User: Fold Voltage-gated potassium channel from Corynebacterium spheniscorum.
Amino acid sequence: MAKRLRDKLPGTTGELNKMPDHALTGIIRIPVGPVLSPWWLIAKRCVYAVVLLFIVACIVYSDKDGYTEELTFIDAFYYSTVSLSTTGYGDITPVTQSARLINIIVITPMRVAFVILLVGTTLSVLTEESRRSLQIQSWRKRVRNHTIVVGYGTKGRSAVSALLADGVSPNQIVVIDTDRAALSRAENQGLVTVYGSATKADVLKLAGVNRARAVVVAPNLDDTAVLVTLSVREIAPSAMIVASVREQENQHLLEQSGADSVVISSETAGRMLGLATVTPSVVEMMEDLLSPDEGFSVAERAITEDEVGANPRHLADIVLGVVRSGELYRIDSPEAETVEPGDRLLYIRRVFREDVKRP
Assistant:
């Protein structure tokens, strides 16, 4: 079904997944460290060139009697300049065996290095492309159990913030979007990005969806969310799919498409707005619970050995429910009367954050 829908949409076919790694440098972006200013790079290369000229001048001056005339240091520096730049006027030339040997063994390799410095910008670009190609190749081989976020709009950014606050490493999050500006923001956060439409199977495969632990579907349109969910479920039957839908009437479409959990954004926002007019403190507490980086947070943890057989209501933590075999039982259900081996607890966690760092 997903394949038929993709075939009907323009621009949803292709073989990106079969392209060589060097051809994907404009599609997959692996975060790197802070980028230096180009002016700083140019200044650094100029310093290297001057240092190289000075070293050659010192070498030539140390054998100043081996040339067509006795050299001053200025002459030696002049000779190193015209020699390393391959200008070679010929007014000063080595005549003794030792001077010629030094030119062959020392100055010629330095001449090559100096030329490399002169064309350093081009070489830097080529080196950068090769480095990125190797990064993509390495990443595609080792990426496992990661989380894919489809759409880096308001919902996608909030989902990523929650993941990062819960301790997920940025390199374990992959963002798919067709907006270059949004992908740049994601890359600045240290996230791996893939440019393209997630309705295309090859784009999903580039993001490693078949090896992903979870997929967050958060595009702007409900029909896109349905198609993406269908595509993901077809390629990755075991991945957890959490999808966002704007209208409640489309919830069943996402569930039928294979979404494990569906969040109705417009209805949730509407309820929050209604509550805010009647009980604003309730909305404040709910926002606190949904913000994992401060205050209280809803979290999940494994039970400890001494908690087996206990009633979750009597534990130190405020337990909201028990997760058993992947199914959630609320605290008031009969199944949650006793904690069993292998259970996980859904509880309220207190998050501490130091606003001011003490020396």
